[in-house]
Specification:
alpha+beta; 10 strands; about 400 residues; five-stranded antiparallel beta sheet; Beta-Lactamase; 3 domains; elongated
Length: about 400
């Protein structure tokens, strides 16, 4: 029930607070607090303080935790405001009553409690939702020093927590670690994924000197260290190896960072790192394979390879021609595709040709069959005609002459 009080009768509620006006007009006789005129001085002082703050705060008074709060707390209360005013700790947020009742008991015994990113399921607007809060509980004492209430400073960290959580999941899924580097002190603040990339435990203090020590001796000039501080961007993209101190395994790390301007303050860089070992190994394997193939081809006569592959091509054309019922010879079919005479084709496709197939003819065949340059030069081209599986020749186009 609401009743009127004169604005000047309770100056501790002055100051323009909307909640202050609600407190002034609230019927407190039906609560453990009793009428406003009976409130003890310590309660009035703390109430006056929270009403003038733009930080969300609450008061839970007495063993029943009768609730008072300020304007800033209304965002957290949602649609439960103003119905929360004057309710006990058990009635105000029944879905988390046990948690709050425990905190009340602990703090009324003279202790402080601090929670960071405390997860709660709260019904603020008629449905349960996940909320994360930072909460600092401290005792309110009377003139004798006895704890008679609890002051709570509350911050809604849901948005920040969920953003950090999504970032953390993305980092773990992508294998990307983040860091902040302060070169003047050598201090590094790093994410959990950064530690995993570098093989560092959670209790290890990370510094640029430590990372330089873990780097491969030949790559230490690429790692954060005193020798890089005078570079235009010591965090420019680089790839280097690190050596696992326990197993001796060598892994590759990629890093990229940028400077964050801080006028008159300490230099600061932020960036990312990721393990690129598998990519490096694949590149090395591919390079080795290409080198072996190049050496193999270099040891062979390319004209011989071309000539052999043309004979395989003719055999395939002949089989396809017979299957389709055209009964054309393979040399005739190839000659038509190239716009040449059968005699010209038979000359470089003969069993014992006087000259091997030349560059011009090779290019014409590749163009006719829409193949990349060098198709006829492939030393591993099989008799199954690579690229012409399932007894279907590639679609060739007739060259204009």
């Amino acid at each position: 029930m609401i009743h009127s009080n004169t604005p000047d009768s309770f100056p501790f509620l002055a100051g323009g607070s909307k909640i202050g006006e609600l407190i002034r007009s609230f019927d407190w006789k039906k609560t453990p607090l009793g009428e406003l005129s009976q409130w003890p001085e310590c309660l009035r002082v703390v109430t006056s303080m929270i009403l003038r703050s733009d930080v969300p705060m609450t008061i839970q008074w007495g063993t029943e935790g009768t609730l008072l709060y300020n304007d800033a707390y209304c965002e957290i209360a949602g649609a439960r405001h103003p119905g929360l005013l004057g309710l006990t700790v058990r009635d105000s947020w029944p879905e988390v009553a046990d948690f709050r009742a425990h905190a009340l008991d602990v703090v009324l015994n003279g202790n402080a409690l601090n929670y960071r990113d405390q997860h709660m399921l709260l019904s603020r607007d008629g449905w349960l939702e996940d909320i994360w809060l930072d909460i600092n509980y401290s005792p309110i004492v009377d003139e004798s020093g006895e704890a008679v209430g609890v002051l709570a400073i509350v911050k809604n960290t849901t948005e920040r927590f969920q953003l950090e959580q999504r970032l953390r999941f993305a980092q773990e899924a992508g294998g990307v670690g983040t860091f902040e580097w302060y070169p003047d002190s050598g201090r590094l603040e790093v994410s959990d994924q950064f530690r995993r990339v570098w093989g560092l435990r959670a209790d290890v203090a990370v510094t640029d000197v430590l990372l330089a020590d873990l780097a491969h001796p030949d790559d230490r000039h690429e790692v954060v260290g005193p020798q890089r501080q005078d570079l235009p961007n010591p965090m420019a993209y680089s790839e280097y190896r690190r050596v696992d101190p326990t197993t001796g395994e060598i892994r590759w790390v990629a890093r990229r960072g940028e400077a964050i301007s801080r006028d008159g303050g300490a230099r600061r860089y932020i960036g990312i790192v990721m393990d690129i070992t598998e990519r490096k190994r694949s590149e090395e394997s591919l390079a080795a394979s290409e080198l072996r193939e190049r050496h193999l081809v270099e040891r062979m006569d390319i004209k011989e390879i071309r000539h052999r592959n043309v004979r395989v091509l003719l055999e395939k054309l002949g089989r396809n021609g017979n299957r389709s019922g055209k009964q054309f010879g393979s040399i005739t079919m190839l000659a038509e595709l190239l716009g040449k005479s059968a005699a010209q084709v038979s000359r470089f496709a003969a069993e014992k040709p006087s000259t091997y197939i030349g560059d011009r003819i090779a290019r014409e065949i590749e163009e006719a069959f829409a193949k990349d340059r060098g198709w006829l030069d492939h030393a591993q081209w099989s008799t199954n005609l690579e690229g012409a599986e399932h007894d279907q020749m590639p679609q060739a186009r007739r060259l204009s002459r």
